[in-house]
Amino acid sequence: MLLVLTGCGSSTQHLGAAEPARAPATTAAPAGTSTSLGSAPQGIVYDPSTHQLAVAVHDPYRLLLLDSRTLAVRRSVPLDGKARHLQIGGGRVLVPVETANQLVQVPLDGGPVVTTRVQRHPHDATIAPNGDVFVGNEFSGSISLVRDGRLVRSVKGPQQPGGVHAFGDQLAVVDVGSFTVSVYTDSLRRVARHSAGAGPTHGVLVGDDHFVVADTRGGDLLLFGLNPLRRLDRVHVGHSPYGMAGDESTGTAWVSLTGSNRLVGYRVDGDRLVRTSSYATVRQPDTVAVAPGGHDLWVTGTADGVIEHIAR
């Protein structure tokens, strides 16, 4: 197993998992148009085949499916607890419900919802090309494999898994407890691990073997190559980067800066990250979605219960 842990010392690890900053009041008008949605939207993802947005909201806990053009609600699905991060694949939304220890799969075509009990505090979930779903259980230190709605097995490994992403027959896992990125096979065997700053939280795939990680506590964006796992670049952005959306068609990572209410875009140029865009956002921009090509972006304003649409 490839193991590179330079700079991953105990001086910061005792701090635990990083969280988004508590955003200040906005000082600039948001770049996009804002629409009221519901209490504390946090978790958003876009499906290009149906032109729908999926958004998790609180009070009561629900998953909303929206028309991405009008933001009208097409479907509202009750949840048994809080969800903060969403992914889409195989025609369905993957909803890890943290406080209910559930993976909820919501078909985008209006079909029946499938609920699977997993382990403690599932934070993120991803789908492999063969339809298998992998769930990172943050408080169990494990990854669960769900197949056809059934829990197949759970394997200990990461100390505290945050973001998880399937690529080919492997997984990239951001460990918010050990401040590392790991690569696992689809049999859940870890084959590589690398340090990832002072407090990483999430990552996004941006194409061509590239994976961008937000070091939320350190205020950096880290660019990794995945085969083999290696760090290629590090860019300081400050302001607690947290919400992320990857556009593989343009090789761009869109990242919210929760400490300054901004959204920035960084494109991969060779093995470097180059900033291309910066926009003012609504308050507390915890999560982000992007349409392929990057012409439409959506940001959740978690503090004020709104969604911002930025048309480029």
Automatic annotation (TrEMBL):
PANTHER family documented for this protein: DIHYDRO-HEME D1 DEHYDROGENASE, PROTEIN NIRF
Region described as Disordered: 13-34
UniProt name for this protein: YncE family protein
Cross-referenced Gene3D superfamilies: YVTN repeat-like/Quinoprotein amine dehydrogenase (2.130.10.10)
Biased composition regions of type Low complexity, renumbered to the chain: 16-34
InterPro entries registered for this protein in UniProt: Haem_d1_sf, Host-pathogen_enzymatic-act, N2O_reductase_N, WD40/YVTN_repeat-like_dom_sf
